[in-house]
Design goal:
The complex is a heterodimer of chains A (337) and B (360).
Chain A: E1 4-13, E2 16-26, E3 31-35, H1 42-50, E4 57-62, E5 65-66, H2 72-75, E6 77-80, H3 92-97, H4 109-122, H5 138-150, E7 156-160, H6 168-185, E8 189-193, H7 196-202, E9 205-210, E10 213-218, H8 220-225, H9 230-233, E11 242-245, E12 259-262, E13 267-269, E14 275-284, E15 289-295, E16 298-304, E17 315-320, E18 326-328, E19 334-335
Chain B: E1 4-13, E2 16-26, E3 31-35, H1 42-50, E4 57-62, E5 65-66, E6 77-80, H2 92-102, H3 107-120, H4 136-148, E7 154-158, H5 166-183, E8 186-191, H6 194-200, E9 203-208, E10 211-216, H7 218-223, H8 228-233, E11 240-244, E12 254-257, E13 260-263, E14 276-280, E15 285-288, E16 293-302, E17 306-313, E18 316-323, E19 333-338, E20 344-347
Parallel strand pairs in B: 3-8, 3-9, 6-7, 7-8
Antiparallel strand pairs in B: 1-2, 1-4, 4-5, 9-10, 11-14, 12-13, 14-20, 15-19, 16-17, 16-19, 17-18
The chains are: A alpha+beta (337), B alpha+beta (360).
Chain lengths: 337, 360
Amino acid sequence: MSEVKIENVSKKFGDTNAVSNLSFTIKDGEFVVLLGPTGAGKTTTLRLIAGLEKADEGKIFIGDRDATLFQPAQRDVAFVFQQYSLYPNYTVYNNLAFPLRSPLRSLNKEQIDRAVRAIAKTLHIEDKLKNKATHLSGGEMQRVAIGRALVRDPNIFLMDEPLSSLDAKLREELRLELKNIQVQLGATLLFVTHDHVEATTMADRIGVLKEGELIQIDPPEKIYNDPNSVYVATRLGSPKINVIPSRLLEIELPAKVEYVAFRPENVSMNSKGALDARIETRQNLGVEEIVTMGFMGEMVRAVVKPDSVPRSSKDVKFSVRKDDMLFFDKKSQRVYL
Amino acid sequence: MAEIVIEDLKKEFGDFVAVTNSNLTIRDGDFFVLLGPSGCGKTTTLRMIAGLEYPTYGKIFLDAEDVTFLRASQRDIAFVFQMFALYPHMNVEKNIAFPLKTQGVKKSEIRKSVREVAKMLHLDTVLKSKVSALSGGDKQRVALGRAIIRRPKAFLMDEPLGSLDAEFRELMCFELKKMHNDIDATTVYVTHDQNEAMAMGDRIGIMDKGVMLQADDPLTIYNKPRAKFVGSFIGSPAMNFIDVNAFVKKGDTSIKINGSQLAIPQCHEDGHMDFNYLGIRPENISIVDNGDIKGAVYGVEYLGANKIITVDTEFGRLKARVPSVIHSKIGDNVGLEFDSNSIIIFNGDDEIAIKSQFMN
């Protein structure tokens, strides 16, 4: 595995800046997730590293070599796509063995067999090795696709929303497995997704992308607790962080503070709370309850213990500790007090 | 609005039993969600309430009136389908007005009703638009509008939000529930999405393989699942289950698994002779230095306010939901502690919870 470094990389498609002046490093053995909506430049970044696109500007280093002008094959990266892209006529075994049979590798039959069986075991598809790729469930197919990448021991794994076409339970299961395997192998992995739960549950660091620009790259805890902008703050968390105009709160703040944000779990609802609100809906999710309130024309959400808020009245009071508030200026950039 | 009662309902399609032994009371004004995986019988149940299918056995009452074999048009209900069935050549106003027009309601009254409904659904600005020009969400609102305008006794909805994207679905969930409250309706809502069910339902009925396993409010469904299936279907991550290869009998306050003695709420009835399950929710397991149960961390999933820690133990793989301040990493050896008061024992044979101090 290798470190991969991206330096001031830009890429345009026509007039659109797909990626602008992007710089970041994926350390050897690190799991980095790029998070952003459709069109943020996630897939373009992966394709630039893979060599499927050429950068207009900037450099890409793989290991300590400048790979900017390398052909895809020279880069020795493994790409896992959203769609399984297996060889339909091959068995699972042959799909997994395929990358190892490349003449560049000069592995003998036994070495290939050992590698295929080891990876099949890791991914719990040992009993499917003789199946045709088309005779698998969606989850199994994606396991094979991931296995085909893992078996190669490349410089870096590049994964483009590989779990998004699976159902919720399977996605949950596979993301747990993928993270475990990555740690066991010490693999370098760049994973892109628009799903914030995938990002926080797997990443060592999350890079938040917006319209081709990297807004913040940090460990999940820091992105969640210490975002540099409203944009980043609203990427993580469900329900979303509350963002309201600062003038609605009667607390002393520097003049440049325009917005105050606080996480729903930091809203306490009790009769001694300082702020008056009216409950609009309550959603009981079992492990927690989401209370949606109207507060001076804004919507504020609180996450509380189920049924801990009395049902007797819709008029309630809430409060938020100042330590739990984040402050932003009129350009939605963080203001540190 | 109306109370709906289902008695011993059964529906067979040839050899296939779609619904069996279903009993249910949907109270006046309830937002009742029928939840289950595909093929569990929830849509068939809804269609029998609507009169689109007739039961093989059993009865359906709408406000104490036996409607079991009445035609759909003779029941005062409105059905909202998964796909918005709109009249493409009519504009929004005419689509919404259609049910009243066919009933021969006066023009001035129709106009008034349409305006009210459009306002409630934020469609007032697009009344003159062709429905084909609308976004998916607006189309769904028009379909809802057409259902609301008749002021029927009950609304029946079959995954009405299934075709919308995630963010929009959340918004429509919210609006649908608000609309239900505003017009004081009785709603029966079919979905396979547990989050939708928990978020919207006053009560939830969970079905599996044609059987209504439990009908309760969301919190009871979550905390006190009466069947193993309910515990596994509701909750993310699901309830943890541990095999208990032993007789669990009335009066027991602890059970032995792999030589370890675990405290449980006192059993009020016998379980299976030699095979049962222990069920516990992830948030009722905590990570401690010296727990009775030891294991190695398989995964750590950070979720912001809390994290899920997956631990491989002698009882199998268990998931604990813990505060985010707890730090452990893959490979760590940790101890686990169960909150024994919330443990549920399921009979290994029928997978139904046995009565106990907790499951009364």
